[in-house]
From TrEMBL:
CDD domains referenced in this protein's UniProt entry, alphabetically: WHTH_GntR
Pfam families: GntR
Swiss-Prot/TrEMBL keywords: DNA-binding, Transcription, Transcription regulation
Name assigned to this protein: GntR family transcriptional regulator
TM helices/strands, residue ranges: none
GO molecular function, one term: DNA-binding transcription factor activity
InterPro entries to which the protein is assigned, alphabetical: Tscrpt_reg_HTH_GntR (IPR000524), WH-like_DNA-bd_sf (IPR036388), WH_DNA-bd_sf (IPR036390)
Keyword Transcription on entry: yes
Residues of the HTH gntR-type domain: 11-79
Amino acid sequence: MEIIISNNVNKPIYEQITSQIKAMIMSGELQAGDAIPSMRSLAKSIHVSVITVQKAYEDLQRDGFIETTVGRGSFVSAQNKEFYQEEQQRIVEAHLQSAAEIGRVCNIPLEKLQELLGLFYQEVE
């Protein structure tokens, strides 16, 4: 499992860890039941404190992405892929609502907004 930490983003390290592990679960790279590294092991491999990794793991466990058992370790949970997708869809809906309101206020035609969304959706970096 490869986690890449950047000091050039305005996102705390524990959130970078959390979001990357969530992305690995959502993409299928990590499957239900897969073991994830111990907190000490991950902290050592990415050169951060164990407390930082602990915070990330606590968030992942709270959100239902991993299950931790004392003495056994942490494993990918089987249950939360749909919940995460629903959460992400709510975020997208909020952004689209804001875009629609701005478009209405500025008299931008719906067709133009749809065209822009299509371009952004298909854009590959």
